[in-house]
């Protein structure tokens, strides 16, 4: 599971200690969870993760330019770049070459037809993420606590391992896993007390709820 949008060493550590597999740092200036590459590097250091990383570090971007990608590679050296904009597979290959990181591609979903977009990503992405499409004119393309009909994913096969995202929280994640058959889940606002303010107790409750649902 992935806990996204962490902004403090305490919550980063809380995610690791709870047993998250991936932690997400958002490099999108308009987000209430935004951290610069420099701040992200300091965060990892303050959380004791500068050298040894017990989890995969993901940097979330939206149509990133080369300068941002170079800054991310130099300062953070993440395991994955999450592409949350309108990037093409060709651009994703460039992102991989510039950063040396793996690629998580977000597919925005409002209806079953949106799932077809996954088919072009079998070469360029390591993982897919199905996240609720935010309404036209929204301030953010993700992290809005919106969900979609999870059942449309049930029984579907995709070329890459995938995350379910969008509107998940400790109270609904068990139902979401059952309804979608998701192999991995991602959460941001569902473990916050206000936009950008993560709560360690909610992070722990989310991880526990996933653990209690998943086969060991
Ligand atoms: O979280 C953000 O602020 C954000 C900003 C811009 C692009 C993507 C963003 N988040 C991406 C994520 O991976 C979120 O975890 C995902 O959209 C689910 O968010 P939520 O519905 O709040 O759990």
From TrEMBL:
Organism of derivation: Brevundimonas abyssalis TAR-001
A biological process from GO: L-tryptophan biosynthetic process
Keywords, comma-separated and alphabetical: Amino-acid biosynthesis, Aromatic amino acid biosynthesis, Isomerase, Tryptophan biosynthesis
GO molecular function, one term: phosphoribosylanthranilate isomerase activity
Enzyme class: isomerase
HAMAP family: PRAI
Catalyzed reaction equations: N-(5-phospho-beta-D-ribosyl)anthranilate = 1-(2-carboxyphenylamino)-1-deoxy-D-ribulose 5-phosphate
SUPFAM superfamilies noted in UniProt: Ribulose-phoshate binding barrel
All residue ranges annotated as the N-(5'phosphoribosyl) anthranilate isomerase (PRAI) domain in the record: 2-208
Family note: Belongs to the TrpF family.
Full protein name: N-(5'-phosphoribosyl)anthranilate isomerase
Keyword presence, Lyase: no
The protein's annotated pathway: Amino-acid biosynthesis; L-tryptophan biosynthesis; L-tryptophan from chorismate: step 3/5
EC annotation from Swiss-Prot or TrEMBL: 5.3.1.24
Keyword match Nucleotide-binding: no
């Amino acid at each position: 599971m992935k806990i996204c949008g962490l902004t403090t060493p305490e919550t980063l550590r809380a995610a690791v200690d709870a047993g998250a597999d991936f932690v997400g740092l958002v490099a999108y200036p308009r987000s209430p969870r935004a951290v610069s590459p420099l701040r992200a590097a300091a965060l990892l250091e303050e959380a004791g993760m500068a050298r040894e990383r017990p989890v995969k570090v993901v940097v979330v971007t939206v149509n990133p330019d080369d300068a941002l990608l170079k800054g991310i590679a130099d300062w953070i050296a993440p395991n994955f770049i999450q592409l949350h904009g309108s990037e093409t597979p060709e651009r994703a290959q460039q992102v991989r070459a510039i950063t040396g990181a793996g690629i998580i591609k977000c597919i925005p979903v409002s209806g079953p037809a949106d799932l077809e977009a996954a088919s072009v990503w079998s070469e360029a992405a390591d993982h897919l993420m199905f996240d609720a499409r935010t309404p036209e004119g929204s301030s953010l393309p993700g992290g809005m606590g919106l969900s979609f009909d999870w059942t449309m994913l049930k029984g579907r096969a995709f070329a890459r391992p995938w995350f379910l995202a969008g509107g998940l929280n400790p109270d609904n994640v068990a139902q979401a896993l059952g309804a979608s058959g998701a192999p991995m889940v991602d959460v941001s606002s569902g473990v916050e007390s206000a936009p950008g303010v993560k709560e360690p107790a909610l992070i722990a409750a989310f991880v526990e709820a996933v653990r209690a649902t998943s086969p060991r």
